[in-house]
Every structure is written in C-alpha cells, then in structure tokens.
Write a structure and sequence with these properties.
The complex is a heterodimer of chains A (113) and B (112).
Chain A (H helix, E strand, L loop, with lengths): L3 E4 L2 E4 L5 E7 L5 E7 L5 E8 L5 E2 L10 E5 L2 E6 L8 E9 L3 E4 L3 E5 L1
Parallel strand pairs in A: 2-11
Antiparallel strand pairs in A: 1-3, 3-8, 4-5, 4-9, 5-6, 7-8, 9-10, 9-11
Chain B lengths: L3 E2 L5 E4 L4 E7 L6 E7 L6 E6 L3 E5 L2 E6 L4 E6 L8 E8 L7 E3 L3 E6 L1
Parallel strand pairs in B: 2-11
Antiparallel strand pairs in B: 1-3, 3-8, 4-5, 4-9, 6-7, 7-8, 9-10, 9-11
The chains are: A mainly beta (113), B mainly beta (112).
Chain lengths: 113, 112
C-alpha cells in the first residue's frame, strides 16, 4: 500500500488562528479524503479532494472553515481556519488504492486552547 | 441518513477464543465493506474488505457479509492480547461516492 505522511503530527494552537495540515503520498493517487475524529468518536468525512477540481465537502463542513488544496496527485493540504476548542480532533487523510481500498495517514492531533 | 451501526462494547474475550464483531448498515446501495483496526492514539489500519455475500478469510480473520440482512461481521480466531483495539466497520456507498461511512467502532479486549 501507499506510504502516507502527514505534517505536523500534532500541534497546540490558540483560538482564532489557522493551521495547515499537509498530506504526502509516495505514489500518485486519484482520490484523497480528509476525515476528522473527535475524542472518543468515529471518523467523519470532511471532504473529498480531487486533483484539478474543487474539493467536495460533506454536510456541515464548509470551504471557508476547511479550505483544501490538491495541487497534484501526491499531495494535499487541509487548513483549519479561525479555530475554536471544538476543532480539537485528530485529522486524517486517506487515499484510495486499487479502485476500492482506503489507507490512512498517521493523523494530525490538534488541540485548540 | 446512511448509517453504519456497531455495538460500542467493550467486548471482552479470553485469549485463544473467537471474537465476533458485528455491524449493520442502512444503505442497501452499499457496495463494499471494510474492517479497520485502530489502536489507541493510532490511525486506522485496514484489516480486510468484502463485497460479495458469504465469507472471506485472511489468516485469523474472517469477514462475513449478508446483503439481504444488511449485516457484516468480523471473526477473529485465536484472539491475542495484541488484538485489543477498536474495530471500525465502514461501508462504501452508491456508485460515484468513493468515501467511506464509518460505524462508531467496537472496543475489543482480549484477556490474557
């Protein structure tokens, strides 16, 4: 499976600031996804990031709050804007391989004070 | 609302026993189903997927799918303490939607 890395692995941020999370894959992939996992909860899809097109956001998530870039087939960023303590979560990127299976990066643990 | 339901557990089994994890889904259009294992503080790790009715075996793991009952299960044979983790069931929906819908996960505890 593809090797996926995320930066940063964790961060502590102040309310009202923004953080950009990077996701790098060691091979070209068509589909990339961003998920959020709040403490003690399961994974919730934020958006699907396709290269060359706008990200597709799930209900409850908006581009102004979670802008996403997908400049090529191996890289994507997710920005968490104007953060509040409710944004404290683990943010995970995933990629689809072989047309069906999804693999996850190691995650970014975000704490907002 | 397309949902995937799991019993949150914890499910406790003795070492060497069979652990049975269950999942139901509401969207009849779901095409394939995935089991992930997630250790505390780690990201989900794919165990296996299934898309045809019946059983699929991979080592100590067997996934079972019954589309008529909208039911998916994961059996872990010869459970080991290292299998103690949260197991997430996920469904891939209708054609065109590539993202996964996850259940809330079942916490498994294997007692030595």
């Amino acid at each position: 499976s593809a090797v996926i890395s995320q930066k940063p692995s964790r961060d502590i941020c102040q309310r009202g600031t923004s953080l950009t999370i990077q996701c790098q894959v060691d091979s070209q992939v068509t589909m990339m996804f961003w998920y959020r996992q709040q403490p003690g909860q399961s994974l919730t899809l934020i958006a699907t990031a396709n290269q060359g097109s706008e990200a597709t956001y799930e209900s409850g998530f908006v581009i102004d709050k979670f802008p996403i870039s997908r400049p090529n087939l191996t890289f994507s960023t997710l920005t968490v804007s104007n953060m509040s303590p409710e944004d404290s979560s683990i943010y995970l990127c995933s990629v689809e391989e072989y047309g069906n299976t999804q693999y996850f990066g190691p995650g970014t643990r975000l704490t907002v004070l | 609302q397309k949902e995937v339901e799991q019993n949150s557990g914890p499910l406790s089994v003795p070492e060497g026993a069979i652990a049975s994890l269950n999942c139901t889904y509401s969207d009849r259009g779901s095409q394939s189903f995935f089991w992930y294992r997630q250790y505390s503080g780690k990201s989900p790790e794919l165990i296996m997927f299934i898309y045809s009715n019946g059983d699929k075996e991979d080592g100590r793991f067997t996934a079972q799918l019954n589309k008529a009952s909208q039911y998916v299960s994961l059996l872990i044979r010869d459970s080991q303490p290292s299998d103690s983790a949260t197991y997430l069931c996920a469904a891939k929906g209708y054609t065109g939607r590539r993202a996964l819908t996850f259940g809330s996960g079942t916490r498994l505890q294997v007692q030595p």
